[in-house]
């Protein structure tokens, strides 16, 4: 990212929207191959109502030899500038799927210059019009993690395209950025990459506009902008699309609105550096990946988790069960100390099962109601073995059945290890002084909330539900999570039956003991409480 920035500083005249009429001829610019900007012809057909609020779009017909060769309008042409009489009319922004590939809609440059939130969607006369699109290229990632990332990006209205990582690209892309240049909006860089391809519409001094429609419509953003090298255009009966690779950084995207994206040249955004180190204990193989993720609170969790999962998959070179020890070290601007968590995971899909803590903590940081939080770095260390290292709780026992409040109970939990033998784990439970006489039920379970399940393959099962009743800061919120038992801990808990006010909920008392196994199942023991 230390490459010199280059830009084209020009004063652009705009074509008045009130002078647009059918039959006007113009010219558009885009990159069909490599970094060379080529022209195509444009004919205005009519003005149509926009589905972006009160504005209008311009219906045009495209023509030209290169357009014919590439199948007409393609995703990745979004933002291609259109000029009439050497005045900028606007940007190619919408097309029609499964229809005439030479029809397109242009977003007027006046709307793009505003780049402010517009009104809610309203009906318009061309309901089949869809954004010409910004194909999101994902490279350096295996098929399975890609499929998960594909669904995640789809939730943000983005369509991912998997492509191999390109090596040996000689073209540096150090030409000035100007209208018609191919541009990449990068969300992830490093050992795996996620970047969307589009076209620059307008450049003036230190600012530029592109796309002609929103990227993910996130408002204020902080994405990396790079020049792009177009490898080819893939023809499709639905809508063709460009495939390309990012080149040198040119700036940062700071606005992502309905009418387009806006960026600042010669600036760089801040990313979250992520390091993932995975060891396959069975084959004595290891793999370390490094990648950087944009700081968008709505997206960084899925981008990070997908990269971690893929590193596990590629290290193991298999998809299947096992046991994993995972260590997290997450640094933020909001907490004086790093967030440290070590946990043991088991599942028939161990790469997916291992993501529980990571997803939960990233969720907490992104969605907390106390303060905006910048994640400075994420470090994940994982050791995986194929062996199922679980232990099922068989029974919970003690030497006597009657106790007085305030006494300590010496307990023994009998576990059975998977395809192994029985194991006894001692615990001590201190009874509160204020317990009422009667029966008291003790429950032994594993630290995982879903430890009664045979496997923990679903990340959703382990989602942390925030209870804000006793939490008044981000620090306490994180501590509450870190204080929850880990999966290899044996937990004995009971409900305090002491009388309390109607507005107070019964408290759950816990005692924990460490083991080397992922604990599954549960057992109960009922004791009798004598009067004090």
Q: Main attributes?
A:
532 residues, mainly beta, six-stranded antiparallel β-barrel
Structure in words:
There is one protein chain. The protein is mainly beta and 532 residues long. Helices cover 12% and strands 46% of the residues. It has seven helices and 30 strands. A hairpin with a 2-residue loop joins β12 and β13 (207-210). α3 runs antiparallel to α4 and α4 (300-316) packs antiparallel against α6. The N and C termini lie far apart (71 Å). Residues 1-10, 116-128 and 451-461 have low confidence and may be disordered.
Task: Please write out the topology.
Blueprint: E1 25-33, E2 36-49, E3 56-63, H1 65-69, E4 74-75, E5 81-84, E6 87-96, E7 103-108, H2 109-114, E8 129-131, E9 136-139, H3 143-154, E10 160-162, E11 182-190, E12 193-204, E13 207-210, E14 219-234, E15 240-257, E16 260-265, E17 271-280, E18 285-294, H4 300-316, E19 322-332, E20 339-347, H5 350-353, H6 356-367, E21 375-385, E22 390-398, E23 402-403, E24 408-417, E25 422-430, E26 438-446, H7 474-482, E27 489-495, E28 508-514, E29 518-520, E30 522-529
């Amino acid at each position: 990212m230390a490459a010199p920035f280059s830009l084209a500083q020009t004063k652009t005249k705009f074509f008045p929207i009130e002078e647009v009429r059918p039959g006007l001829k113009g010219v558009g610019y885009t990159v069909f191959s490599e970094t060379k900007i080529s022209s195509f012809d444009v004919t205005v057909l009519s003005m149509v109502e926009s589905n972006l609020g009160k504005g209008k779009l311009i219906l045009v017909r495209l023509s030209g030899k290169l357009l014919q060769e590439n199948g007409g309008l393609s995703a990745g042409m979004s933002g291609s500038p259109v000029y009439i009489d050497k005045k900028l009319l606007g940007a190619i922004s919408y097309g029609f799927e499964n229809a005439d590939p030479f029809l397109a809609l242009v977003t007027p440059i006046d709307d793009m210059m505003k780049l402010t939130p517009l009104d809610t969607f309203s009906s318009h006369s061309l309901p089949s019009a869809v954004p010409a699109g910004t194909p999101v290229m994902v490279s350096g990632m295996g098929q399975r993690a890609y499929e998960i990332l594909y669904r995640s990006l789809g939730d943000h209205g983005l369509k991912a395209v998997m492509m191999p990582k390109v090596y040996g690209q000689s073209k540096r892309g150090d030409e000035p950025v100007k209208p018609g240049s191919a541009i990449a909006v990068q969300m992830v860089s490093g050992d795996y990459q996620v970047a969307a391809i589009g076209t620059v519409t307008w450049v003036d001094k230190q600012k530029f506009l592109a796309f002609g429609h929103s990227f993910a419509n996130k408002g204020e953003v902080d994405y990396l902008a790079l020049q792009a090298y177009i490898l080819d255009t893939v023809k499709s009966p639905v809508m063709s699309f460009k495939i390309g690779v990012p080149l040198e950084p040119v700036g940062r995207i700071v606005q992502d609105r309905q009418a387009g994206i806006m960026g600042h040249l010669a600036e760089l955004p801040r990313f979250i550096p992520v390091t993932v180190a995975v060891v396959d204990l069975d084959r004595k193989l290891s793999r370390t990946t490094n990648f950087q993720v944009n700081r968008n609170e709505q997206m960084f969790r899925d981008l990070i988790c997908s990269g971690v999962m893929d590193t596990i998959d590629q290290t193991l070179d298999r998809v299947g069960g096992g046991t994993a020890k995972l260590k997290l070290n997450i640094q933020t601007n909001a907490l004086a100390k790093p967030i440290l968590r070590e946990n043991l995971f088991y599942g028939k899909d161990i790469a997916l099962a291992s993501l529980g803590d990571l997803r939960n903590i990233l969720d907490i940081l992104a969605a907390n109601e106390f303060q905006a939080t910048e994640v400075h770095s994420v470090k994940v260390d994982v050791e995986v073995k194929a062996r199922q290292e679980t232990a099922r709780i068989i029974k919970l026992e003690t030497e006597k059945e009657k106790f007085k409040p305030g006494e300590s109970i010496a307990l023994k939990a009998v576990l059975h290890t998977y395809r192994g033998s029985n194991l006894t784990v001692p615990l001590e439970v201190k009874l509160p002084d204020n317990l009422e006489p009667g029966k008291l039920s003790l429950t032994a379970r594993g630290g995982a909330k879903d430890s009664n399940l045979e496997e923990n393959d679903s990340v959703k099962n382990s989602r942390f539900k925030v209870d804000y009743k006793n939490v008044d800061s981000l620090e306490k919120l994180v501590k509450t999570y870190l204080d929850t038992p880990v999966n290899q801990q044996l937990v004995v808990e009971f409900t305090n039956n002491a009388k309390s006010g109607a507005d107070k909920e019964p408290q759950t008392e816990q005692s924990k003991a460490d083991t080397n196994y992922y604990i599954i199942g549960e057992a109960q023991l009922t004791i009798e409480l004598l009067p004090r």
